[in-house]
């Protein structure tokens, strides 16, 4: 085994074998880090899993389903997920206001990844 074969970045499936493929500005590490930032925080994963279970939800449903989240925090987290293109906000333009949230195509494509992470956790119970 050569030194290149023994390194972690050599094992990551990418189109080219150069070090930058993993560690460069546009490498694997940068992309995974960006996604982890999008979903990090106490409330984003509960919001995403609720939207995966229910295709469309109103703020009041989130507040009932996610204990201890405040309206302010829910709004902040939904806006962040919307800015990242994971959640879409639909305003019906009605009075009283009616707004619903749903996963975008990108959000739906993220869910199998999160389900795989869940299964990884179930199979590897060690650590915290």
From TrEMBL:
Alphabetical list of InterPro entries matching this protein: HTH_HxlR (IPR002577), WH-like_DNA-bd_sf (IPR036388), WH_DNA-bd_sf (IPR036390)
Gene Ontology MF: a single term: DNA binding
TM annotation in the entry: none
Top-level taxonomic group: Bacteria
Domain HTH hxlR-type span(s) in chain numbering: 22-128
Entry keyword set: DNA-binding, Transcription, Transcription regulation
Matches recorded under Gene3D superfamilies: Winged helix-like DNA-binding domain superfamily/Winged helix DNA-binding domain (1.10.10.10)
One Pfam family from the record: HxlR
Cited PANTHER family: TRANSCRIPTIONAL REGULATOR, TRANSCRIPTIONAL REGULATOR, MARR FAMILY
Name assigned to this protein: DNA-binding HxlR family transcriptional regulator
Source organism of this protein record: Longimicrobium terrae
High-level lineage: Bacteria, Pseudomonadati, Gemmatimonadota, Longimicrobiia, Longimicrobiales
